[in-house]
Specification:
mainly beta; 41% strand; single chain
């Protein structure tokens, strides 16, 4: 996913980003006129860690939005949790 995202026109790499869970990562970012959209990956494995949307202008009146992935479990069927 990291490699594919870096090929999108306008996307830039951000080598040092900290996600909402405090983990260091590398991001691919798409700057917009109101927000910057970041997909954050583990810098060694490129495992997807989280995404965030950060306002680019202080006077926009919006707050950053975040979502982190803390656990991944592989299951045999839908609804199974472990």
């Amino acid at each position: 996913m990291y490699e594919a995202a870096t090929k999108i026109p306008g996307v830039v790499a951000s080598p040092t980003v900290t996600d909402a869970a405090g983990r260091a990562g590398t991001a691919v970012s798409l700057p917009g006129s109101i927000d910057r959209y970041d997909l954050i990956f583990d810098p060694q494995t490129y495992q997807f860690l989280s995404w965030q949307t950060v306002p680019v202008a202080a006077d926009v009146g919006q707050q950053a939005r975040h979502e982190v992935i803390l656990n991944v479990t592989i299951v045999d069927r839908a609804g199974q949790t472990s």
